[in-house]
Each structure stands twice: as C-alpha cells, then as structure tokens.
Design a protein that fits this description.
This protein is an all-alpha fold. 77% of the residues lie in helices and 0% in strands. It starts with a helix and ends in a 12-residue tail after the last helix.
Length: 143
C-alpha cells in the first residue's frame, strides 16, 4: 500500500503542476488582457484546486505511514526535509491556492477574479516547486 501511495503521489504531482501552470498562465494573461471570466476559466481553476487537494490528502496519508518521517532524527537533512520542511511548504502552498480560489470566486469583476487567482496560484506554484524533493536535491530521487 505504501509503495502504491508513493507512486500515486509522485505521479499525480505532474497533473497538479501542469494544471497549476496552465491556471497561472491563463489567469495572468486574461487579467492583463482584461478578458472576461468564462465557465472554462472557472473549471480550470476548480480542477487545479481539486488536484492540489488530492495531492494534500495523499501526502497526509503518506506523512502518517511513511518510514521517512521520524521526529527523533531531525539532524539528518533528508529526514528533516520529509518530516518538517516538505509538509510545511506544501500546506502553505495549498492554503494559498485555496484562498486564491475562494477570493477569486467571490470577486465582483472579471479582472479581479483573474488577478486574485493568478497571484495566489503563482505564489502557491512557487512554494510547490521549492518543496518538491527533486532528484537533483539528493532527497530521495524525487520520490
């Protein structure tokens, strides 16, 4: 079960990243172009929100069953990353994305909707990119 969850969490990150990149690009370009907020925009932003929340659920399950999480060995940089840094960064990123979606949904003008989603989703994306255990960081080969 653990291995399957790790693979699902690792593989689904690409879907979440692609949707997040698309949402940031669309929201900023429509905000700058003063374009209307369409049902397609709403769906893209919602599917992006759902994908990062799915990653959150998988990540929280892994957090509680993972052998990589060990509070007694925080001096080890890999264990510290998985025990403290990764989860903290990702929780902040998902909180920003959720706030952006919620505030964008409540905004009155189309430009304001795109602006709020664009800003909050871009901040969330930056944190996610910083918090992913990329292979080049030596934190477990991207798993």
């Amino acid at each position: 079960m653990y291995t399957g969850l790790v693979h699902a969490h690792s593989g689904l990150r690409w879907l979440a990243l692609v949707l997040l990149l698309a949402a940031v690009f669309v929201s900023i370009s429509r905000w700058q172009g003063n374009k209307p907020f369409t049902d397609g925009n709403r769906k893209l932003y919602l599917f992006t929100l759902i994908s990062v929340h799915l990653q959150l659920v998988l990540g929280l399950i892994l957090y509680f069953i993972s052998p990589k999480v060990n509070f007694d060995a925080l001096a080890n940089r890999v264990i510290r990353f998985y025990t403290v840094e990764h989860i903290t960064i990702m929780l902040l990123a998902i909180a920003l994305i959720t706030v952006g979606y919620s505030r964008g949904k409540r905004a009155t003008s189309d430009v304001q909707k795109h602006r709020l989603v664009g800003i909050f989703y871009a901040l969330g994306l930056a944190l996610i990119l910083a918090g992913i255990p990329w292979a080049f960081r030596g934190l477990g080969a991207g798993n």
